[in-house]
Design brief:
The chain is α/β, with parallel strands linked by helices. It is about 50% helix and about 20% strand. The chain has 13 helices and ten strands.
Length: about 325
């Protein structure tokens, strides 16, 4: 009787494994949703649509982008967390997620417990801009103005924990300034607030803010990379213009709910890496200031864990809060 029971359990396990492998081998057999927990028009949305278009072509099934912004990415991320772990609902994430691991204490999920890394996508520098009504013409003048008016200047972001928020908090901590954080639901809303003069300053992805700055609607003060951006070579970095050692970027990646079959993760990683290796994609992204990131799932896992540690330190040092 016991032997028969063991045989039954073994048969059941093999059947389940066979079903899983068959499912992975036929993946995808229907439409795949890429949830972007940020607003339309921002870099996450833009690059998610590039991925979706190419994955649709290569995997012969529709990859559809769904924007679900709010609460600094938590609303859309939780929707993915609650989805079946079958590879048909994916998360387009950013360093917002690694920051939120230490910044937001009562999330309904934990990043490395409830999700599995698929692949990184790209990274880009941020651009520090001010509204044209701000008296400062460069970073040194802005620092002097901020120190002369503590708590009177504001900076916009697309929500707590986003790269725009943390770039601002890191700037405040390293420059010794007191600038008020004004969170918005989406990056487009934050952008509009600065362009409209309702908020004085913002750190934004160079990929989206550069044309606005070049159009004269805002004034570019500095970029946030380790060296000057080739897109705006006349604009100094924050580090060289007055805050030594400062550096902040925005990066994007793809994750899936925990329990997604490893074969599906491998397929997605391979196909995403093929997309970012395309000459046309590299050329288009270079013109926008985005640099492709290529890693295996295991490498991306290590990268995420290191970034969580990095931003936990920044949150502690800066005193940043989820507001």
């Amino acid at each position: 009787m016991i032997a028969r029971r063991h045989l039954f359990l073994a048969a059941a396990c093999f059947a389940a494994l066979g079903s899983s492998l068959a499912s992975a081998q036929t993946y995808p057999s229907r439409s795949v949703k890429i949830v972007v927990p940020f607003g339309a028009g921002g870099p996450a949305d833009v690059f998610a649509r590039v991925l979706a278009d190419h994955l649709t072509q290569s995997l012969k099934q529709p990859f559809v982008v769904e924007n679900r912004p709010g609460a600094g990415s938590i609303i859309g991320t939780e929707a993915v967390h609650q989805s079946p772990p079958d590879g048909y609902t994916l998360l387009l994430m950013s360093n917002t997620h690694t920051t939120n691991e230490s910044l937001v204490q009562n999330k309904p999920f934990e990043l490395m417990r409830d999700f599995v890394p698929v692949a990184p996508v790209n990274y880009s520098d941020l651009l520090m801009v001010v509204h044209s009504s701000v008296e400062a013409k460069d970073l040194k003048e802005f620092l002097a103005l901020a120190k002369a008016k503590p708590g009177q200047l504001n900076y916009a972001s697309s929500g707590p924990g986003t790269p725009y928020h943390m770039a601002g908090e890191l700037f405040k901590a390293m420059s010794g300034t007191d600038i008020v954080h004004v969170p918005h639901k989406a990056s487009g809303d934050a952008r509009n607030s600065v362009v409209g003069g309702h908020v004085q300053m913002m750190f934004d992805a160079i990929t989206t803010m550069r044309p606005i700055a070049e159009g004269g609607k805002v004034r570019a003060i500095a970029t946030t990379g380790a060296k000057r951006s080739p897109l705006m070579p006349d604009v100094p970095t924050v580090a060289e213009a007055g805050v030594p050692g400062y550096e902040a970027t925005i990066w994007l990646g793809v994750m899936a709910p925990k329990g997604t079959p490893p074969e599906v993760i491998k397929t997605l990683n391979t196909e995403i890496n093929k997309v970012i290796d395309l000459a046309a994609v590299k050329e288009a992204w270079a013109k926008q200031g985005a640099v492709p990131m290529r890693m295996a799932p295991e490498e991306f896992d290590a990268y995420l864990r290191k970034d969580i540690e990095k931003w936990a330190h920044v949150v502690k040092v800066s005193g940043a809060t989820a507001r």
